[in-house]
Specification:
This protein is mainly alpha-helical. The protein folds into four domains: about 80 residues, Endolytic murein transglycosylase (Dna Ligase, domain 1, 2-Layer Sandwich); about 80 residues, no CATH class; about 100 residues, no CATH class; about 45 residues. A two-stranded antiparallel sheet has the order 1-2. The chain has a two-stranded antiparallel ribbon with strand order 3-4. Strands 5-6 form a two-stranded antiparallel sheet. β5 and β6 form a beta hairpin. α9 packs across α13. The longest helix has about 35 residues.
Amino acid sequence: MAMRSGDPSPAQRVKSAVAVLVSLIVLVGGLGFVGAKVYGAYQDYTQRDDYVGDGADTVEVVIPKDSTWQRAGDILEARGVIASAATFVDKVTAAQSAAGSADKVVLQAGKFKMKTRWPAQTALDYLLDPAHIELVKVTLLEGWRWADQIRPALLKATELTSADFDQALADPAGLGLPAYANNQVEGFLFPDTYQMPEGAGDILRQLISNFNDKAAGLDLANKAAALGRSPRDVVIVASIIESEVNKADDMPKVARAIYNRLDQGMPLGVESAFRYGRLMASGTAYSDPIDAAAQQDSSLPYNVYTNPGLPATPVSNPGQAALRAALSPAEGDWLYWVTVDLDTGETKFTSDEAEFEDFRAQFQAWCADHGNPTGCQ
C-alpha cells in the first residue's frame, strides 16, 4: 500500500516506540527505587522496637550473676541482639503472666552465643533454654601458684577482672577458708578441673571447698596432730613437696627429708620457697636465676637457705598426693634430695653431704648437656 503524505516513516515509528519503552523503564525503575526506599523506611519503622527474621551475625553475650531482666535487656540491646530493652522486658512480663508466676521464668547467668537483630521473643526463648549456656571449664595444675599461674588462668577463662578478684580476696572470711589458713588463699586452692561459676568469690569458694573436702577425706587435722605438726605446717610441707618433685613415689621421701631437717634445726635450703618469697616480695619472675649473694641474706622473706624452720606460708597449691605424702612420710634418714634429670624427674636421696654434692654435679652436667633449660640453676 502506498504511504500517505505526512505519515511517519517506519524508522520514525521505531524511534517513537523505543522512546515510549525507555520512558516506561525509567518510570518503573523510579517507582522501584521509591518503593525500595519506602519499604526500607517501613522496615526501619516496624523494627524500631523489635526485629523480625532469623538474625544476622553471631555475637557472644555474658549475663552476669544476679542480673535482673532489665539488666539483661540492656546488655542484649547494647550487643545488638535486640532492638529495644523495653520490648524485651515486655516479653518477659508476658511470659511471667502466662506462667502464672515470675519465679517460673528464671534468668540464667552465663555466657551465650546469640545473633544480632533477633526478635525479642527469640532472644528470651534462647536465654530460658539451659542447653544454650556455654560451660567454661578451667584446669588448675598441682603446684600452681596464685599470683602468677592460677589468677592469670582464671582471668583468661572468664569475663572477670583483677579488681573482681581483689574484691573477693578483701573478704577472706567469706571464702570458706579453714581457720589454720590465716585468711590466706595460697595453699588452699585445690588443683582440679572446674566448671566456672560467674563471680570471683564463687570461683574461689569452689576451689577452697574442694580443698576442705579433700582435707576431710585425708583426716588432715587428726593425722597432722599424730605427727606432732599443725594442719598449717602439713599444708606448707605439701606445697614444698609439690614444687620440688613431680613423681608421686618420691613425695613421701621428700616429706621425710623435710621433717628430718626440721627436727635437726637445719635450714631447708629449698629453691621453691626462696623463689616464691622473691616473687611475692618484688614480682621477680619465679624462673629467674637466683643470686648467690641473696641466698645469704637472712633478712629476705622465705630465705630458707639461711633461716631454719618452715616458710611463713604455703609456696604453692598442693594436690592430694603431696598432702598424703606430708601426712605419711616414708621411713629414712635422708636430708638431701636432687632431681638429676628434669625430663624423667629422676630424683636421688641421701643423708651424706658429700654424696649430695655429687648429685648436684650430676644435675649440672645434665643441664649443660641439654642447653640449660628452665629449671636449671
